[in-house]
Amino acid sequence: MRTPIVAANWKMHKTCEEAVSYFRRLLELVPARREVELVILPPATLLFLAQKHLAGSGIAWGAQHAYPEPQGAFTGEVSVTQVADLGASFLVCGHSERRRLFGEDDGLVARKVRAALEGGLIPILCVGETLEEREAGRAWEVVRGQLAAALADLELPSPERLVIAYEPVWAIGTGVAARPQDAQEVAARIRHWLGERFPGLGERVRIQYGGSVKPDNASDFLALPDIDGALVGGASLDPESFWEIARAA
Ligand code: 13P
How far is the CA of 73 from the centre of ligand 1 (A)? Predict the structure, then answer.
């Protein structure tokens, strides 16, 4: 049995005040007993507020980015160690916005995944093809390549300590979600591939879908056999809409 996991990727949104009112409202909305794991992924400046306001709530939180070296002369960066020290549980690795806008290549993604695992964080490894790659029939080839690169040389991770997010690039922030059957097909292939690469992992690892998930389409994805949750951008910025999505799980 895989516990569903729904995560809010705030991207570069919210001030301190906005974050605090979000946390307060979310805590009002979310019942103490629930069958879905919730994860909030605020920008780095707001992580300490997540630590303060979500402590003891059972709602997990993590970072959208961290640099894999433990310390050093890396101006502007925050390390995995520092994020873990603050009490974070998750780290997004390989998000397409970081790959595309900030030159995060497969090598750096692999180092982040490894550093996260070694530092006690759970990587949410994002993979996904562009529209061009999908139209050329290369979606799975691209996703498989990203998985293989990011997980190269790793020992068998514990299934609880790895989350995969399938996020087709063309579905992110566009309002055009993938067709559920396409998301299911890729998720099933991811699961099968992981099972072959790491015996025993496939059945137990959690796979999220991300890309224009909204309250009105969340259940289409969350009902799919190989999708165990969602990585939500825009619709996660409002606590009501985020909780409505999470409830669909
Ligand atoms: P949207 O939900 O805004 O499409 O963003 C998805 C995403 O990139 C989550 O990481």
Answer: 32
Identify any residues that bridge with 39 across adjacent strands, giving them in sequence order: 7, 60
In order of their start, the domains of the chain are 5-247 (3.20.20.70)
pLDDT in tens, 101-148: 999 999 999 999 999 999 999 999 999 999 999 999 999 999 999 999
Atom of ligand 1 nearest to the CA of 177: 4
Element (H, E) at 193: helix 180-197
Catalytic (active site) residue 192: no
| pLDDT at residue 1 greater than cutoff 90 | no
Collapsing DSSP to helix, strand or coil, 90 comes out as strand
The vertex-226 CA angle with 220 and 227, nearest 5°, equals 50
Residues 198-230 pLDDT 10s: 999 999 999 999 999 999 999 999 999 999 999
Q: How far is CA 149 from CA 34, 94, 105, 154, 192, in A?
A: 35, 11, 10, 10, 17
Looking at 156-160, 162-166, 224-228, which range is the least confident one? 156-160
From the CA of 175, give the closest atom in ligand 1: 4
Residue nearest to atom 2 of ligand 1 (CA): 233
Give the number of the atom of ligand 1 that is nearest the alpha carbon of residue 210. 6
* Max CA distance (Å), the chain: 48
Q: Is 167 a catalytic residue?
A: yes
According to the model, what pLDDT value does residue 153 have? Answer: 83
Residues near ligand 1 (Cβ within 6 A): 9, 95, 167, 172-173, 210-213, 231-235
How many Å apart are CA 110 and CA 149, to the nearest integer?
7
Distance 72 CA to ligand 1 centre (A): 32
